[in-house]
Amino acid sequence: MAPKQKKKSSRGKKSPKPVLAASEDMEPVNMESMGHPEIYPLVLTTKTQEIFSCQIDEDVTDEQPYKLINKEDIFEDLRNRAAVSDFHPVKKIVQEYPGNELLLVYDRDFKYGLNFYLIGTEEGKESYLNPPEVPEEQEEYKEHIPEDVYIYKLPVSKPWVSLGSEKEIEEESVTESTKQITYMISRKRSEFGAPIKFSDQNASSVKDAYIECTAYPDKNFTLKQLEKDVGMQVIPQIKDISTQTKWTYPKNATTQYYPREFSEEEKETLKQSKPLVDFLNNASISVEIALQQNEIMNTFIDDWKYLAEEEGTFGDKTDTHLKEYQSFTDLHSPTEKMITCVSWHPTIYGLIAVSVAVRLSFEDRVHFSGKLLLQPSLILFWSFSDPIHPQLMLESPDDIFCFKFCPSDPNIIAGGCINGQIVMWDITAHADRIENIKAGGGRSKRATLKPMFLLEPESNKEAMYIRHCAVSSIENGHKKVITDIHWLSDTFEINRMGSVFENRSGICCQLVTCSADCTICFWDIRPQKLLTPQTTEKKKEESIEIPFDVPSTFLHLDLSWKPLTKVRLSKGETSLDYCPTKISLNEDHLLCKTQDKMLAQSKTEKAEEMNPYHNLESGMANLLKPIDDFCTKFFVGTEEGEVIYTDWKMEKDPETGRLMSKKPVSHHTVHDGTVHTIQRSPFYNDIILTVGGWNVAIWKEGVMTGPLLQSCCAPKRYTSGHWSLTRPGVFYIGREDGYIDIWDLLEKTHEPAQSQNICITMITYIKPWIFSSKQQFIAIADYYGTLHILEIPWTLSRPSTNEMASVNHYFEREVKHLEYVEQRKKIREQEKKEMELEMAKKKVKIYQKSKEQMQAELKMDYESYLELEKTVLINLGLIKVTEKGSYMDVM
Amino acid sequence: MNEWTNTGREPDPLPSSLAGPTAPGLGEPQAEVEETLKRIQSHKGVIGTMVVNAEGIPIRTTLDNSTTVQYAGLLHHLTMKAKSTVRDIDPQNDLTFLRIRSKKHEIMVAPDKEYLLIVIQNPCE
Fold it and tell me: Transmembrane stretches, by residue range (chain B) (predicted)?
């Protein structure tokens, strides 16, 4: 085999050989598709292989898989065998082949499909024979190298064919259009750098030094201005000056100023100046016109708006009835019960707590006392979602007559018992149970009448009895039934003397109760500082075990709770005291600001879940100074129907040195029966409603002369009452025959505006509540133990725009009326006095006059008697009738 | 016939322009001022009256000092602004009266060359 030979490409092209007549004019198939257009696969039969001595495995091996074949030989073969020749398909390529020897390569792997292939170009041959060095080194690449040999041909320069690009270049090129002029200026060297002298020259003097275009008036363009309208305004002279400054030290600069004023003398002199007088005379005319315009009519009133408002007050009365919503009765209690107190849960919607007591009179109670001990006294929690089963039941040692939720923590409830004890409950552990009612309330409509405790489905069959947390001490507390209980506000606290201090603990921690034993007690739920060691001994004695499921919030109070102070309502010298039934404290006393605080606390301290009631600390009353100007007065209603305004601050009796409660500031007997409601209006801080006996009275704090309004006796006794929460002039009164009277002060003040029947028996408690602006309920409790929930209609719940002002006006009028009455009383008294004086004087004068008269009368009588005597004597004939005159002379 | 000669001096002042007979302690112009202001103050609903000079310094007032100073300063600026507004629009026009009606009351300003009269009234509702 010929070794690798570099075929020189300088051979140039050879004239093509005479083309053999080809029967088929076929395009040879090349491997262009594989990226090698110079490779033409061929099949070489063994015959051809013999001819060309490229037999497989003999001449053509793996080491040398190629063979250089002469073109001549191929042509000869073609001639000899024509179409049979194996080179027939590539005949054309062979003819066109520039070189002399073609490269035939044995394709052992049938890489190109057939067993041999022909490389059709010189370059391919070259590149095959001399593959590039890099792949030669790497054996793996050897297979993939295109096995053609590229013969390097020097590029032959062809004549340039213009395609129009030179025109573009011409256009873009920048050439100088004008011929550059060059100047050469020369000067004597010595003149360079010489001092220069400038001088002025008038341009016009030198000829042709300048060219001008003089302006000339062109007649075509003249406009003659005939008229000019100019406005002038005088403005103050303005001067703008600016300078640049350097702000080295940024410093705040402040200016303090005071207004310019005239001194008194200047004012006086000015007053007398003529211009001022003239000015005032002129200005006052227009000012007075303007003032009068305003007085006549208000031009900015929106009449439409005011028209609409007026209609609201006299709206249709069709929808003013309270609609029955739900009613709750405890069906499981053995004895007949009555409801004594009702309270809505302050935060949870649809939850209402009711305290029930046995419906027996005092003698019956005593009679059945043994039986009553076995039955638990309860506070029931009703929810709108379940009218049959109460959600929670709070147990207490005895019947509860009044209770209240703690304003700062609705899980703490304080109640007053019939035996004089205060009972405390802590339902924090069961709070989530009640709260879930809200979520389940909607679903209960779909389900059957089952209470929805979704978390604990087992417990919905049993009712939850919750034992009380603490009770007050029996010896030290009240002796008789507790009639009213209130939580004091969390902003202040009281000490033993009754002085007021700031409450630093942020929660409501003091209670006030009044009882039928004529005392009002203040209680503190925080642990008292132990001064004496007596209590430890007491604790040892008490070995009562507390059931495990009762929270220990008030453990320190249980059975040893003493009141902080006791205020005795005494009537003075007599031993009979006032027997309070209800008390009404000032709004400041009850206002709670912890709502926001508790929300914030619950948000931030959720991780710790600290309940301030579980960590009660004793009060700081000893360390703080008392607040001086705090109003410590409050209203008390008594069993006899009196309304008392008294003070809770204790004063020291000068004689005995003991703490004595003050005497009441004022008291009035207005009602004929027990006062069972004293309530402040939610809109006005000093208007109080008292209901008792057969009438209603409205009072104003500060007006001591009497009630603003006192209704006349109603046909039926009034047994409960409450202000409306949204309308300032409306209040609800319950009667003993089950009717509820709705009073509207703007409509009628002598009788109720409406009357509606609720139940058949006495109404014991009324409590309205607002849930949303559209939904307001009123809970009415009756004597037979049923709690009715009614919905307040729109007209009764929505105040008209001026209602507050009108009611205020009404109260002011009433106050004035009272004052007027007082004044008239005084005037009348004065008049009376005067009249009496006159009468006395008259009597005296009469007496004097009559004395003289009597004398005159006597004289006349005497004369007439004398005449009578004379006539008688004449008639008797004893005296002769002579001339009357002489007779008179004789007389 | 009257003969008009040029005396070369100013005419004698008219008797009415001279200061009238002054009562002891009470100048007549002052009394007039007081009377006018009292009359304005006695109108229904008038809260306060004040007279302010051209620079905004109060001369006479029925309100307390701080309120007066505040009103005077603010209303003086406003009046000047209103005046220049009117004159900018039409230089031959001038501001005669300014009334500001607010929710609670109405402020009336009567401007002049040298003084301002401010009255605050509560229109009856």
Answer: none
Are B37 and A280 an interchain contact pair (Cβ–Cβ within 8 Å)?
A: yes
- Say whether B43 and A288 touch across the interface (CB within 8 A): yes
In this structure, the dihedral spanned by the alpha carbons of residues A619, A621, A622 and A625, taken in order and rounded to 10 degrees, is 150
Which of A277, A289, A294, A302 has the most B C-beta neighbours within 10 Å, making it the best mutation to test the interface with B?
A: A294
Tell me how far apart the alpha carbons of residues A727 and A137 are, in angstroms, rounded to a whole number.
106
Which value, in Å, is the radius of gyration of the alpha carbons in chain B?
Answer: 20
Mutate to test the interface with A, among B55, B79, B96, B119 (most CBs of A within 10 A): B119
- Nearest residue of B to residue A258 by CA position? B69
Scan for tokens 């049959």, then name that residue: A388
Structure tokens at A326: 């739900």
For residues A279 and B112, what is the distance between their CA atoms, to the nearest angstrom? 7
Q: From chain A, pick out residues whose CB is under 8 angstroms from the CB of B106.
A: 294
> How is B60-99 classified by DSSP, letter by letter?
EESS-HHHHHHHHHHHHHHHHHHHHHHHHH-TT-----EE
Measured in angstroms, the CA of B11 and the nearest CA of chain A are apart by: 20
pLDDT value at residue A637: 82
| DSSP three-state, residue A40 | strand
* Cβ neighbours, 10 Å, residue A484: 23
Q: Which of A1, A2, A9 is nearest to A126 (CA)?
A: A9
Sign of CA dihedral A449, A452, A456, A460: negative
Q: Is residue B30 part of a domain?
A: no
Nearest to A262 among B30, B45, B59 (CB): B59
Nearest chain B alpha carbon to A289: B40
Of B114, B115, B119, the CB nearest to A291: B119
Among A785, A797, A786, A671, CA closest to A742: A797
Question: What is residue A318's predicted lDDT score, i.e. its pLDDT?
Answer: 60
Q: B39 and A233 in contact by Cβ < 8 A?
A: no
* Six-digit token string for A238: 């303005």
Q: Are A21 and A74 in contact (CB under 8 A)?
A: no
Cα nearest neighbour of A275 on chain B: B114
* Cβ atoms of residues A401 and A466 within 8 Å: no
Q: Which domain holds residue B69?
A: 45-121
Joined tokens for residue A828: 């009348």
* Residue A367 near residue A325, CB atoms below 8 Å: no
Provide the shortest C-alpha distance from residue B59 to chain A (in Å).
6
Kindly list the residues from chain B whose CB atom is less than 8 angstroms away from the CB atom of residue A233: 87-88, 91
Q: For chain A, which ranges sit under pLDDT 50? A: 1-25, 135-137, 312-316, 439-461, 530-543, 593-610, 621
Task: Report pLDDT digits (tens) over B15-49.
Answer: 544 444 444 444 566 788 888 999 999 988 899 99
- How far A681 CA lies from chain B's nearest CA (Å)? 27
* Domain-located, residue B109: yes
- Min Cα separation B80/chain A (Å): 12
Question: What is the per-residue DSSP string for A573-587?
Answer: SSS-B--EEEEE--H
Domains in chain B: how many in total? 1
Residue B20 belongs to a domain = no
Look at strands A392-396 and A464-466 and give their pairing: parallel
**DSSP type of residue A610:** -
The model's pTM is 0.52
Q: Is B48 on the interface with A (CB under 8 A)?
A: no
- pLDDT tens, residue by residue, A166-211: 888 888 888 888 888 899 988 888 878 888 888 888 877 777 777 8
Q: Which of residues 85-104 of B touch A (CB under 8 A)?
A: 87-88, 90-92, 96-97, 99, 101
CATH of the domain at B103: 3.30.450.30
Let me know if residue B111 belongs to a domain.
yes
